[in-house]
What does this fold into?
Amino acid sequence: MCDVIRTPHLRSRSLVALVALAAIGLAACGDDTTVGSAATVATTAPAESAATTPVAPSGDFGIGACAPADGSGAKTQTFANAPQKCLVDGKNYTVTLTTDQGTLHIQMRPDIAPVTVNSFVNLARYHYFDGTTCHRAIVGFVVQCGDPTATGTGGPGYEFIDELAKIEPYQIGSVAMANAGPNTNGSQFFIITGASGAGLPPSYTLFGKVADADLGVVAALDALANPADGPPLTPINITSATVEEK
It folds into this structure.
């Protein structure tokens, strides 16, 4: 049976859902190079700590303002409400996430998670992610980002619904929302960097995929990750997140 790695400062409402990957039929444990034994590792699910004063999720899009589509809006990191529908039906969206460790082009999936993509794109257009640090990275699992405080407790000031009805299997390069329990999505997201992450239960809204050409950067991020549960061994900083609509 795998030992569970727990880190107190990352605890949140969702940590009652610990991941034992053997139970879902994938490689339950890491290899000898990361944890010393092929039978000694499991980890907690990606989690976003509870917001201090969360806005209760509504059934659909919010009522907040849409950022200028050209990215000319002022940097904003605090919001009263989730955004109204800002996406244009039939358009494709790509978010370019520039980090100090490489650039990732994330192909958005509004067809399976429209509310989530709407929020993420709007935050990016408000430069919400610019200058932030990815606060959690676990070898062979995930890199977690999107908290301006880099503590695992930050968020935009609103929460919104899970979108799991059309979820597809996770894979390396998948981008999904971290949460603190059902319907508590905010701004924290994770990029799956290894087989353990791909084996997560389908409880985290999948909303994007790193372009195949950038999977080498995903591997590079994983190489900087922590063998335990915590921040990366080398900082991963997001310089900017920009949106292409076409």
Observations:
- The first helix runs from residue 32 to 35.
- The chain has four helices and twelve strands.
